[in-house]
Amino acid sequence: MPQTDPSFPVRLRSLLAYTALLCGVLSFVPGATVTGAVCVVLAVLLAWRDLRLVARMLFAFVILGATAAAVLQPSALLAASENMTRLSALILTVMLLSSVLGNAGDLVRISGSLFSGRPLARYYSLAFGTGLLSVPLNFGSVGVVGSLIGHRIRDKGDSAMTRNAVRAVLRGFAVSPICSPLSISVVMTVTFLPGLQSWELIALSLPMGVLILLGGAWQREPEVQALPAGDDTRAGLSPWLRFAGIIALICAGVFTLSGLAGLSYSKSVTLSCFAAVVIGFTVRGLRTRRLDLPSMAPVSNELIIVGGSAFIGALISLVALNLLGDDVRFPGWAFPVMALLVPWVFYVGGTAGFNPIIIGTLVGGVLGPLWPADAVLGLGIAMVSGWGITAAGSPYAANSLLMERLTGYPARHIGLYWNFRLSMVLLVLTGALASGLTAWLAG
């Protein structure tokens, strides 16, 4: 009796993920978005044994929601499938971009140099450095710098320096959802608030993110031990300039495609990152004389968390809009109050285990059509700030779970206890900013 190749299911999962990616890139082809959603579902089914409990539960909700939508409202099923394929393609493209840049020698020197300097300088170096790395690397930035922290813990033990380093990395990454033009949060916010321009949102969220990183030093432990002499690594200016140049080119492509070519912002981000991936693998292939694409089989958890959350969120928002009806109207004072509460909705939902994609889809899908057109910037700031604060303060955030695996620090301590007071202050301040902005712009 012939033996089945044990690696075949793994290769098939990777092939399905790549197919879903191409379906997202070629979403203008009839039936591509539905095909992409089917590929995501099949890839997750094949990886069932490797899925976390939360991913399995999310997949079950996807199946239940899809079944109900197919019977009650097939058009909602199509819209949710499109949402699933679009965001799945985006996260897969960003992961491939992370793989391309993660093998560069510049990244090793940059990440190592983040540990240099005195305690305060080292904290800011790690926070701002991770924030910059997370623009193209997404979760890869946490993986790269977190691996170095884990290595130091294994070599020299737990210390205030390593705990502060974890704080800095999580907070640095959390600024990415607030102001990175390539982040899922910014993409979704601009998508659900069509009257909001990406540059308009980032022009305000970027300085806000910088202030959040600067103020984060308030919540860290005092360090009594300095790094031994000669323990610093210097990267020099050239690696930073090359890395910043890559980010600038990708962002320029995004703004060109969305502003001049008239493509949707999510499509522009996916295509710009995909172009960078193609160029990166082409250059690598010319150097090594072979095309060595990474396997997409290990990303099944991320695929169902992102794609499934997008699917469920789209269904929930459509149901909510149908229940509210077309004639629903809120008094003028209600919008500043809702803007004040939106960051808290993200945070409370995140600490309860709900993915920010579900919350973002629900908030944007329901409130976006009802929000005053002149005041959408207030809702946009509320959404991205709530998303970012949740990324740093939720024990169920993917970056907290990844850091737990790399360093051994419990995710509950990393995400919740170490950041609780900072999260409370930021929720109050950003909520007040969003509320005041909404009241001012709405007149």
UniProtKB/TrEMBL annotation:
Keyword Transcription: no
Membrane-spanning residues: 15-48, 54-72, 124-149, 169-193, 239-259, 265-283, 303-324, 344-368, 375-398, 418-442
Taxonomy, superkingdom: Bacteria
Protein name: Integral membrane protein
UniProt keyword list: Membrane, Transmembrane, Transmembrane helix
